[in-house]
Amino acid sequence: MTAPYRPLDASAILDLYFIENRARLLDIASFLDRIDRHDGAEEARQDFRYQAFAKALALLDGSSGNRAAAIQMVFSDLSTEPLESAVGLKAVGAWKGEPDAGD
User: Fold this and answer.
1) In the chain, N or C: fewer CB atoms in 10 Å?
2) 24 in helix, strand or coil?
3) Distance (Å, rounded) from C-alpha 77 to C-alpha 13?
């Protein structure tokens, strides 16, 4: 018989997941460094995907306890009207958006 489930406390979560999330942050830093080091960096920083990424990173600094939901919304399509056709479209991981979409 197994012991009853006990939720982890914050210290245990830190102990278990610190190293893997440290690695994720280093991966993000190297991704941004690669963009900065190459020709076209300024153009890349103007891309809607880079802009969404920057907004998401800024949200990490908050302490609302609801960062994951806020970051998901940064990348989400807020339009309410369905497309006539999605033929030829592909997922890019961020929503380019339209000024009046989602209203």
Assistant:
1) N
2) helix
3) 32
The 10s digit of each residue's pLDDT in 22-68 is 999 999 999 999 999 999 999 999 999 999 999 999 999 877 789 99
Q: Which of 23, 25, 9, 96 is nearest to 61 (CA)?
A: 25
CA distances for 89 relative to 73, 83, 84, 86, angstroms: 21, 11, 12, 5
Residue 31 CB: number of other CB atoms within 10 A?
A: 11
User: Quick count: other Cβ atoms within 10 Å of Cβ 53?
Assistant: 21
Q: Which two tokens stand for residue 103?
A: 């209203």
CA–CA separation, 22 and 24 (whole Å): 5
Rg (CA), the chain: 19
Query: Is the separation of the CB atoms in 95 and 77 below 8 Å?
Result: yes
pTM for the whole thing? 0.78
* Two tokens, residue 6: 């006990």
DSSP state of 76: S
